[in-house]
Amino acid sequence: MKNAWWKRAVVYQIYPRSFMDSNGDGIGDLRGIISRLDYLKELGVDVVWLSPVYQSPNDDNGYDISDYRAIMEEFGTMEDFDEMLSGMHERGIRLVMDLVVNHTSDEHAWFVESRSGVDNPYRDYYIWREGKDGREPNNWESCFSGSAWEYDGTTDMYYLHLFSKKQPDLNWDNPKVRQEVFDMMDWWCRKGIDGFRMDVISLISKKPGLPDGEPVPGSEYADHGCANGPRVHEYLREMNQKVLSRYDLMTVGECAGVTTREAEKYASLDGTELNMVFQFEHVDLDNGPYGKWTDRRVDLRDLKQMMDKWQTKLAGKAWNSLFLGNHDQPRCVSRFGNDDPRYRVSCAKMLATCLHMMQGTPYVYQGDEIGMTNCPFETLDDIRDIESINAFHKYTGSGQISPEDMMRYIRLRGRDNSRTPMQWDDGPQAGFTTGQPWIMVNPNYKEINVKKELTDPDSVFHYYRKLIALRKQEDIITEGSCQLLEPDHEKLYIYTRTLDTEKLLVICNFSEDETVYEIPAEFSHARVLIRNLPGDQPEGTLRLRPYEAVVLKTE
Ligand code: GLC
Ligand code: CA
Across the chain, what does the average pLDDT equal? Predict the structure, then answer.
């Protein structure tokens, strides 16, 4: 694992529904992606993580799969897929597919069979239970609000769904289910894909007996407690032996509820499970009493402490993935920085600097490389995301949150912020489609778009390009150890990287105030590796402008 290619890689996440529409139906598609491959090549990314493109009734935008070996009609055909894959490979870009196997769609043939009768051979592919005292079998809450159980009249029993009721959970304790999944993965590997991003993989092993959880105060439901279940590592090791180890892949597990200790197993450098995990501790820091539905902002000191914990605890043992946003998170520049037009550009570059200089594999979410922002959705009619819509009804229905506050929270934290169409140019619908897009375009597209970014040498795009290229030139970015400085500083995020005799100093101003920093003596003759604002050679006292970032390297 020492020289594994994925340690040096930068990954770009495509959310296909919102990336590029080729045929004017308002929905992004594979031919749209094909038409933009040269753009990705210019950015310099090594890998594309493609959110699901499989056949799906789209209850959760493709995370509810009804056929793992077919392409969603709206997205194109298998021929389009093959052409996209070879187009990527020709440009030296690898493809990581989304693997959604904690659950399927309720329209998947296995589930259609499974629900048809208790003796059906597919019955045990899913998790069926009798009701308890005329109610659900236990008190678990779905991640998308309401009970995690759905009653099914055909057999007078309930099935488990940790997400929507159209996403029934697979029963991983059934060896036949595991074999089906492994065969399907093998089928995609033989097609030539280069890896998997494994959706909520930390949830696949449920506790025996499915015990009630501790009820959330003020609610009849409890957390399902399925994260890092008793057999999850056993199942991943089996997957590794049967499939992953037979190909040269990159694997990343989406691990809700993962701790650094668990991550050492999931992403151990000995290569027995996965290559890396997505952890969520740093994007949960700004949660409030109603989880993500809040206007709280993270305190920089907490963010630094959390990032540093993951940097140091995994060092030499496991591998980090680095991200500030994805299709489930709001836009990072709005959330961790400042999307005010005065600061947006500096801020987008500063956040990218802070993240890309850390140890791990960085992920760029589509649009972040041009500094896209949260979207001013007005009413619930503008919202498409099942999570936001269900939460709106839950909290306004119970009277815990007013409709106005809930809309405000959705504007700050809802998943649709990152799902508005990619802004390609300043023409109608931002050049995303010639038709009506499935979700509104952010009205700031005339200001923020790819066309403009490509022509401006000081753009966020060109800055990302430099950051990505630096990772190829400087081993220290991949290999160096990480040390946080000034943990209690409220405005500056400062850390060093060390590899043998070389050192990097990364200084990021997370505030809109000019902030002073004394450069440590060992960096007094260091050269500037990259910075987001023009300036003189920094020496002695550094005056950082709002959202300024400077990286120094000792010779
Ligand atoms: C993951 C996906 C998210 C999806 C959920 C259920 O968290 O990233 O988009 O809704 O799993 O599949
Ligand atoms: Ca289309």
Answer: 97
Q: What's the pTM?
A: 0.98
Pairing label, strands 250-254, 157-160: unpaired
Find tokens 């992920």 and name the residue: 363
Q: Which residues line ligand 1 (CB under 6 A)?
A: 60, 63, 100, 163, 199-200, 254, 327-328
Q: Which residue has the tokens 């490979």?
A: 89
| For ligand 1, mutation pick of 13, 58, 63 (most atoms within 8 Å of CB) | 63
pLDDT digits (tens, 9 = 90+) for 185-229: 999 999 999 999 999 999 999 999 999 999 988 889 999 999 999
Beta bridge partners of 497: 482, 504
Strand 195-198, strand 94-99: pairing:
parallel
- How far CA 248 is from CA of 7, 17, 191, in Å, comes to 13, 28, 13
Give 322-347 pLDDT, tens digit per residue. Answer: 999 999 999 999 999 999 999 999 99
Taking only the tens place, the pLDDT of each residue in 400-458 is: 999 999 999 999 999 999 999 999 999 999 999 999 999 999 999 999 999 999 999 99
Residue 465 CA, ligand 2 centroid: distance in Å: 28
Q: State the pLDDT at residue 2.
A: 58
Residue 63 CA, closest ligand 1 atom number: 12
Please give the Cα distance from 497 to 517 (Å, whole number): 18
Q: Specify whether the CB–CB gap between 181 and 108 falls below 8 A.
A: no
In sign, the C-alpha dihedral spanning 366, 371, 374, 376 is: negative
What is the Å distance from ligand 1's center to 378 Cα?
24
Closest by CA to 445, choosing from 543, 371, 526, is 371
Strand intervals (E) in 412-535: 481-485, 492-499, 502-509, 515-518, 527-531
Distance CA 28, CA 74 (A): 8
pLDDT for the residue 555: 80
Nearest CA to ligand 1 atom 4: 63
Rg of the chain on CA atoms, in Å: 23
3-state SS of 375-392 is CCCCCHHHCCCHHHHHHH
Residue 227: half-sphere exposure toward Cβ, Cα within 13 Å: 14
CA of 64 to the centre of ligand 1 (A): 9
